[in-house]
Specification:
The chain has about 180 residues and is mainly alpha-helical. It is built from six helices and no strands. The protein is rod-shaped and about 95 Å long. The protein starts with a helix and ends in a 24-residue tail after the last helix.
């Protein structure tokens, strides 16, 4: 009888330890996954902000430079396409670089308060975007390391948690409307 009680207690203790280990590993994986999702939301939000700022710069650039820039029509076309955040960011960065060049080439435009505000907000957005991408990659690296180690890899496999690429490109535009997903 004593042996049966010892065996039952041993099984209960082992099961409890395995359950605690599983819960601990699962929580670590979920923590990194949630941080990655938060970073993706910030990235999408900053891309939307940059898009809005580019659109608002159009009237100032065209009015003060008498330029009809093709870059604005390209940005408008992006809204109608199904594009990843990575590609969207790339196109926005090209346009923003052009806006910075115009800012340097047209001192009268650069002196306008509204345009100065746009440039300042673009620079602030760039800082937040880079921080979000760094945050994403940091927590993605932690998640990758957890998934590659035993026994975390088993917990990840059981819960469908998979390795993601660094700064994974996600869909930015909502298919149901013309708006940008956040």
């Amino acid at each position: 009888m004593d042996i049966i009680i010892i065996v039952i207690l041993t099984i209960i203790i082992i099961a409890s330890l395995l359950t605690m280990l599983y819960i601990t590993l699962y929580n670590k994986l979920q923590y990194s996954t949630r941080r990655i999702e938060e970073a993706e939301k910030v990235i999408a939000s900053e891309l939307k902000t940059r898009y809005t700022l580019i659109k608002s710069s159009k009237k100032h650039v065209e009015k003060n430079t008498k330029m009809d820039l093709d870059m604005y029509s390209k940005i408008e076309k992006i809204k109608k396409s199904n594009i990843s955040s990575y590609d969207f960011e790339k196109k926005l960065t090209e346009t923003i670089t052009t806006i910075y060049i115009i800012n340097n080439d047209y001192p009268k435009l650069a002196e306008k308060k509204e345009f100065k505000d746009i440039i300042r907000k673009l620079e602030e957005s760039d800082t937040r975007l880079n921080a979000a991408k760094s945050f994403y990659n940091k927590h993605n690296e932690i998640l990758i390391n957890q998934i590659k180690k035993f026994p975390s890899n088993i917990v990840a496999m059981l819960n469908g948690i998979k390795i993601q690429q660094y700064y994974e490109a996600v869909q930015v535009f909502n298919e149901n409307d013309d708006g940008i997903k956040i």
